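Bit of a strange request maybe. I'm writing a small parser for structure token strings and I need a real example to test against, not something I typed by hand. Could someone generate the tokens for this chain?
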Amino acid sequence: MANFAKPDGPRFSVDVYQNEYLPEGGSQVDAIVTVTATGGGTLGGAAVAPGRPSAAVAVMVDCSGSMDYPPAKMRGAREATAAAIDTLRDGTRFAVIGGTHVAQEVYPGGGRLAVADATTREQAKQALRRLSAGGGTAIGTWLRLADRLLSAADVTLRHGILLTDGRNEHESPADLRATLDACAGRFTCDARGVGTDWDVKEVTGIASALLGTADIVADPAGLAADFTRMMETAMGKEVADVALRVWTPLGATLRFVKQVAPAVEDLTHRRTEAGPRAGDYPTGSWGDESRDYHLSVTVPPAGLGQEMLAARVSLVVPQPDGTVQNLGAQGLVRAVWTDDMAASTAMSPQVAHYTGQAELAQAIQQGIDLRKAGDFDGATAKLGRALQLANASGNADTAKLLAKVVDVVDAATGTVRLKTRVAEADEMTLETRSTKTVRVKK
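Reply from user aminoacidic:
Good idea to test on real output. This should exercise your parser:
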């Protein structure tokens, strides 16, 4: 394990969990890399040093016509945004955007950001009262306006919060994808769907592309508490744009890099080259927290008794001048060839746990898709397997969500029956939260 303390910020550490022993001819090496940041994110509600705002936040509120059906949605959105504004640290730059088929600056306007203090918070909350529902939905326009506003701020951390209640019907999927590609790496964004008329894959796709969280708030009355939690988390971030740098030796191939806790997120395709045999994988912003990553590497087989470094993992932060700051924390993934069958066939508990969690997320997604397509036998099999995995790994929250979609006959064997009637909110909650995992008990 290696540690690094960023001046006036969190201390990073890297731990590697694996079974490094391979049988003769073996070539696949798997490891769980735990990255932990401690000692940062402790400013709470304290003011940012004068002239040095640490963060900029854009809150994007759906104002399309459907937000008036029922009226509680728009009322809940106003209250939630006001609660988020109250949670802003003094000195934080912020803006509120109203989203329909176009994006409008609700506060402060004029293509600029406000600086959070008692006066601007009250002005922003007054502006929220003028929000009304009407028009369509083109989420890409909201994100592009947020990007323009946030990029103009001389800050380290840029974050968005996006709320929608409907589908992105006034913009093509290709246009939204192009916007997400353009915004990726420029700011992070949490996305929320309120009610049950929005598209789960659309909302989770936005959060995934922008390294944020996604969730459902089925009852608008829950929005204020959820927005407060999101903003508190955003205010606790202290280091932006941290990348996992993975080096592999000549002849080795990195099969995949996945975040596996607190949620499953495949980072493999997000690699940017970082020199000979090294690549960077974005992880977003960090405060006081710990995350787990699954690395899988194929190495050239070697003789019994030989060992090699299969991968070296470090943490870096890109700098404005094109260089990177190495955070110093480093972990090593090893491969050792042995004829000890007990050693080479043992599976690391951490690798086993998260392999199961990744399968759990996939089984839920497949099961829901099959159910929607009318393949009830296939859906039953997949959701039954998901329940079995959830119970075996101690993922009680997911097991409870599954029990709202299936009748449990035998949880241990995954024997279930599909419920004939399922509340739409229950199915959407299960789908939205399917990638959330539980930490392995070390």
